[in-house]
Amino acid sequence: MATDSPTGESPSRGKRADAQRNRETVLAAAAEVFVTSGVDAPIRRIAAEAGVGMATIYRHFPTRADLVTAVYRHQIEACAEAGPSLLAAADSPFEALRQWIDLFVDFLVTKHGLADALQSDNERFAALHAYFLDRLLPVCALLLDASVEAGDIRPGTQPYELMRGIGNLCVGRDGDPRYDPRRLIALLLQGLQRPDAT
After folding, report:
1. pLDDT tens sequence across 65-115
2. pTM reported for the whole predicted model
């Protein structure tokens, strides 16, 4: 008969917690490696960054597509969860929108190779793109609506067009160090504001 461990956890629960910690460590390491080397980075490099064996990575993520999908789902989730928190904490809804767009831009400009992956024929990546829209469009809508209601911005901007426009401004950031999309995005946001709110 199995006995509880000294920490009060059953052995199986302890193993599950260890496995979850390993998974989180691998996701964080993979995200860091993808920033510098793209989604085609060697798995052994991710394992070294995480401090785990390659077998641990393959146990959680049997294919590269599984790992890429899990990393970006995790980061999409973080971006989605940040919206309501920023809205509750910021000085104004527009400030919350601005801070959230900063996070969104971070997500877009550091995801080397993700755009190509999302346009591939792999069904997993097609599902990831749908998940990206399903999770982030409502957050963007929440922040836009709150900003309109507060009188900070003009009504009429659609979440999809704003996110798509920001995404388009971020294209080419990797290939040209002279181009900083954030300057143009700041101008775009300034253009959304009511004249009396600036």
Report:
1. 889 889 989 989 999 999 999 999 999 999 999 999 999 998 887 765 665
2. 0.79
Please give the structure tokens belonging to residue 83.
Answer: 């919206």
DSSP H/E element including 170:
helix 159-170
> Can you tell me the distance from the alpha carbon of 139 to that of 61, in angstroms, rounded to the nearest whole number?
29
Tokens 């790992």 belong to residue: 67
Q: How confident is the model at residue 128 (pLDDT cuts 50, 70, 90)?
A: confident
Determine contact, residues 110/182, Cβ cutoff 8 Å.
Answer: no
- The DSSP secondary structure of 22-78, one letter per residue, reads HHHHHHHHHHHHHHHH-TT--HHHHHHHHTS-HHHHHHH-SSHHHHHHHHHHHHHHH
Rounded CA gap, 64 and 163, in Å?
A: 27
- Mind giving me the DSSP string for 83-152? HHHHHHHSSSHHHHHHHHHHHHHHHHHT-TTHHHHHTSS-HHHHHHHHHHHHHHHHHHHHHHHHHHHTTS
